[in-house]
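Researcher: Structure for this, please.
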Amino acid sequence: MKVAVVGATGLVGGEILNVLAERNFPVTQLIPVASERSVGKQVTFKGKAYTVVSYQEAIAAKPDVAIFSAGGSTSLALAPLFAEAGITVIDNSSAWRMDPTKKLIVPEINAHTLTKADKIIANPNCSTIQMVVVLNPLHQRFGVKRVVVSTYQSVTGTGKAAVDQLFDERAGKDQVRQVYPHRIDLNVLPHIDVFLDNGYTKEEMKMVNETRKIMGDETIAVTATTVRIPTIGGHSEAVNVEFNQEFELAEVYGILENAEGVVVEDDVKNFVYPMPINAHGKDEVFVGRIRRDETQAKTLNLWIVADNLRKGAATNAVQIAEYLMAKGLL
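Model: Predicted structure, token format:
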């Protein structure tokens, strides 16, 4: 497989290279791509240095697949050029997610909908991915009616500059480049992405709209509050889900323990529950604090954690490529 990674010098781009190596994706030729100012720089893949090239050079090299993690505007401009050259694009930005002509894929849920004709495939938002991986198997059994989710999201979701802001503040530096409108160390910001006219942020509405599209059910009601916290290991979510049917906790545990890509960590007597510090560097989605909502019928509380750079971005994209390859769609 000839593989291009567009945005190879960024946080997620670097994680894509790590995941490709760790999962032994059969890369016969790696083509790292980045902006003009990064052309000529080097990235490392499986111990070997590769020179970053321009998108024109990458298209000319005719990779089988191009995994994009270079931002929405770049994707809108370049993904169609790759697709027109016959290259399958897996895009990590928000550019194509809600395009009705593009598929929004979490492999555990809806990879079976992909065909050879899908040349631009959207990778969902990190917060949405980890939530639906847990909710979908429960939806298949009980039917999800309504979801109330509050997220606690790592600064890595914003990028390297945000990580630098956190650690510069922690180190007490006088000159700190402000990525966020406020200090992030020892603080919490109830604000991810831009505010919309309805008072919600773009990140919150991504979770609403993407959840319905991935799970294939426009009747699911979702309301979200997304929050940035000073952690780097991954994103956490408190999820309250109301079902159409009544459930038994034992069956919920059984479903989740057998769900693809899900690890149950729930032993509160021994203080065992998912935490980003433990999810860091892992590909699974972790769920715990599983308990009935005692104030409302047919309603469950869950605590969901995943590494946002892995399953929330790089791993999900590579899993899509693995599926395409296994099914002969590349």
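Researcher: Any notable elements?
Model: The chain is about 30% helix and 25% strand. The first strand starts at residue 2 and ends at 6.
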